[in-house]
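Q: Structure tokens for this one, please.
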Amino acid sequence: MADSDETKTGSRYDDIIQAAINVFSRTNYDNATTAMIASEAGIAEGTTFRYFKSKKELFLACYKYVERVLIERYVVIYEETKGEPVEYLHAVARSYLEFLRENPNMRKFLAFVLNNSFDPDFLSELDSFVGLNVRAVESMLKKAIRQGDLDKGFDAKAAAWLFVGGYFTMILMDELGAPEIDDPHFADRLIDLVFK
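A: Here is the predicted structure, written as tokens:
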């Protein structure tokens, strides 16, 4: 039944995803159970399996959900900063930091994915999302080079990897309670280092 298209959307689906993210972030993948997730979502455990075949499928759907939330934010920023690639990247960094602060359970969930890349399915999702981000950032940096905002010798590929790696740096800093992360200008300063 989990293959049905109508089970891939809707408020119940989103409730299960949110509950799963909360449970995974409080425990971890191995200790989380579908019974715990169902309880968090306020549904019977069997209902979970109407939407997802397995805990792993649910976990991967959670990751895709977080990706979608982030991409939606980035699309809005792109529309607001068209033609200004450097400003776009600064705004993305600020938005990502805001996202981490506003969504501590999603932050913990992302940290878990990074720490469990030994699982080929988790690694595949991480690789896909990071690759998408690196390509998008590299494209924006190349645009900035063409517009004269960055030097022609600027290494867009290396900078794109540093930029995307900054996502994980911010997760780590927030997890560890680094006081610098509370500075509203921190994301801009971090990104400025990438542009040097």
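A few notes: The chain has two domains: 1-53, 60-195. Residues 1-6 have pLDDT under 50 and may be disordered.
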